[in-house]
Amino acid sequence: MKNYFEENAVSKLLIIRLSSLGDILLTTPLVRTVKEKYPQISIDFLLREEYGDVYKYNPHINSILLYKEGSDNLVSKLRDESYDLVLDLQNNLRSYKLTRLLKTRVLKFRKKHLDKFLLVNFKINRLKDAAPIAVRYAESIPGFTLDEKGLEIFTNSNQSAREKSISKAIGFCPGSRHFTKMYPEEYFIRLGNLLTSKGYQVILFGGRSDFAVCNRISSSLPGSINLCNDNQMLVTACDMQNCLCVVCNDSGLMHLACAVNVPVVTIFGSSVKEFGFFPYRSGKSLILENNFLSCRPCSHIGREECPEKHFKCMREIVPEAVSERIDEFLQ
Question: Domains in the chain, ordered, with CATH?
Answer without folding.
Answer: 4-139 (3.40.50.2000), 167-330 (3.40.50.2000)
